[in-house]
TrEMBL record:
<feature type="compositionally biased region" description="Basic and acidic residues">
    <location>
        <begin position="423"/>
        <end position="435"/>
    </location>
</feature>
<dbReference type="GO" id="GO:0020037">
    <property type="term" value="F:heme binding"/>
</dbReference>
<keyword id="KW-0349">Heme</keyword>
<keyword id="KW-0560">Oxidoreductase</keyword>
<dbReference type="GO" id="GO:0046872">
    <property type="term" value="F:metal ion binding"/>
</dbReference>
<keyword id="KW-0575">Peroxidase</keyword>
<dbReference type="GO" id="GO:0030313">
    <property type="term" value="C:cell envelope"/>
</dbReference>
<dbReference type="InterPro" id="IPR009056">
    <property type="entry name" value="Cyt_c-like_dom"/>
</dbReference>
<keyword id="KW-0732">Signal</keyword>
<keyword id="KW-0408">Iron</keyword>
<dbReference type="InterPro" id="IPR051395">
    <property type="entry name" value="Cytochrome_c_Peroxidase/MauG"/>
</dbReference>
<dbReference type="InterPro" id="IPR004852">
    <property type="entry name" value="Di-haem_cyt_c_peroxidsae"/>
</dbReference>
<feature type="region of interest" description="Disordered">
    <location>
        <begin position="423"/>
        <end position="450"/>
    </location>
</feature>
<protein>
    <submittedName>
        <fullName>Cytochrome c peroxidase</fullName>
    </submittedName>
</protein>
<dbReference type="GO" id="GO:0004130">
    <property type="term" value="F:cytochrome-c peroxidase activity"/>
</dbReference>
<dbReference type="InterPro" id="IPR036909">
    <property type="entry name" value="Cyt_c-like_dom_sf"/>
</dbReference>
<keyword id="KW-0479">Metal-binding</keyword>
Length: 450
């Protein structure tokens, strides 16, 4: 064998050996940059902290209030026609939304319903943030003529006339006022229809305060129930847990290649994480995302109006019906209330279970997630803010992000009985919780941690 032939033989053998070695190792492992891993950890449900306190609600985590609020939430008698409950627009089987572009109560609402799952983590409620607690938020639909339309006095009377409600209320909050004098306590509400508002004006300030105190306490019971509505671990969370533990082989079996690429785009080039960050995939801040027609002033001013409604709300953290201390109300005390960027801005919502909860956006404009991602990909200018920039994603990349969003769906980490209307045996006077499973609304229950 000549020298040249010998060299050629050796090189050929080396190439064969290298190819064989590569074949033994299988496909090359995916590489995640440290910044990507940090983002994945921040989105993982294992990073979800315990529920924050509710400064204006002393019974927020009282199991008795949970039971009372559970019944209130599903009770259609808390409406002017006896047919509309909180659960009519916040349906458990739809992740506590209703699947409509505009919710339907006694009339039609201005905006799409929002999920109340994990809403206790947000400092602001409603699309425009016009309430600053779940208990204050729960009050508005009860007397809104387009939703439940129940007079504030009528609600207090319902609580007093029902033996179970009366017992539950008085165990939590003390005696209900005597509402036997109907001339003194007519069907009245400051935010109801014209007749209810006129009747409210005839009541003395002291009686209005008594009724509003009962009203606020009903909201506190509703909040206690809604604080138990928490997200459960989704396929993404199982992937994140395996990846963060260094088991990439297992992680790759938990999300498809398209879902993994969609995740990489979500935390990277597409920058979805700018607004949808943290373990709830939401920063709960306000953004104008160009949903209105280009070149027009927003018909719905969003946060620009919502912040002033918040400040005027008598049930806010600093209001006369809140026992919170001023130092516990920092979000409200230092809220941003001016700026053109508030016009047409709406709260970024959680993307957990988003695949099952269309239509999308505050006005229900988009039917599918593909339409939503394509909207951000094109980045139509709002003419007001600079929240959007064209992403220039391919059609395949758009679908990869949609595939990743599918991996955020999971059953709630909430006892099954709380996801349906209470049976007679479960009503507020009869049910007793199993302290091993339901005594505290710890967000970390059923979630893995490293």
């Amino acid at each position: 064998m000549t020298g040249r032939a010998l060299i050629g033989s050796l090189i050929g053998g080396l190439i064969v050996a290298l190819l064989a070695a590569c074949g033994d190792r299988g496909p090359a492992a995916e590489f995640w940059m440290p910044a990507e891993l940090g983002a994945i950890r921040s989105l993982w449900i294992g990073s979800l902290p315990p529920l924050p306190p509710s400064p204006g609600n002393p019974v927020a985590d009282d199991p008795r209030a949970v039971e009372m609020g559970h019944r209130l939430f599903f009770d259609p008698r808390l409406s002017a026609n006896g047919a509309v409950a909180c659960a009519s627009c916040h349906r458990p089987e739809r992740n506590f939304k209703d699947g409509l572009a505009r919710s339907q109560g006694l009339g039609q609402t201005r905006r799409k319903s929002m999920s109340v799952v994990a809403a206790a983590y947000s400092p602001w409620l409603f699309w425009d943030g016009r309430r600053d607690s779940l208990w204050a938020q729960a009050l508005e639909p009860l007397e809104d003529p387009a939703e439940q339309g129940l007079g504030r006095v009528d609600l207090a009377r319902q609580l007093g006339d029902d033996p179970d409600y009366r017992r539950a209320y008085e165990n939590l909050f003390g005696p209900l006022p005597d509402l036997g004098d109907r001339a003194r306590f007519p069907s009245a509400s400051p935010n109801g229809d014209a007749g209810q508002r006129a009747a409210w004006a005839t009541m003395t300030p002291e009686d209005r305060h008594r009724i509003s105190t009962v009203f606020a306490n009903a909201g506190r019971a509703l909040e206690a129930y809604q604080r138990r509505l928490l997200p459960g671990p989704a396929p993404f969370d199982a992937f994140a847990e395996a990846l963060l533990a260094g088991d990439q082989a297992r992680a790759n079996t938990l999300l498809s290649a398209d879902q993994r690429q969609g995740l990489r785009l979500f935390v990277g080039r597409a920058n979805c994480i700018h607004c949808h960050n943290g373990p709830l995939f939401a920063n709960n801040e306000f953004h104008n995302t160009g949903v209105e027609a280009p070149g027009t002033a927003p018909a719905d001013r969003g946060r620009a109006d919502g912040v002033h409604l918040l400040q005027a709300d008598p049930f806010n953290c600093l209001g006369p019906f809140s026992p919170a201390r001023s130092q516990d109300c920092g979000e409200l005390r230092f809220v941003k209330s001016t700026g053109t960027e508030l016009t047409g801005a709406f709260r970024a919502v959680s993307l957990r279970n988003v695949a099952d909860t269309g239509p999308y956006m505050h006005n229900g404009r988009f039917t599918t997630l593909t339409e939503v991602v394509d909207h951000y990909n094109r980045a139509q200018s709002s003419g007001i803010s600079t929240d959007l920039e064209p992403l220039r994603l391919t059609a395949v990349q758009v679908q990869q992000i949609v595939a990743f969003l599918d991996a955020l769906s999971a059953p709630l980490a909430t006892p099954e009985r709380l996801l349906r209307a209470p049976a007679r045996a479960d009503r507020v006077s009869g049910h007793r919780e199993d302290p091993a499973t339901e005594s505290a609304p710890a967000a970390s229950r059923n979630t893995p941690r490293l």
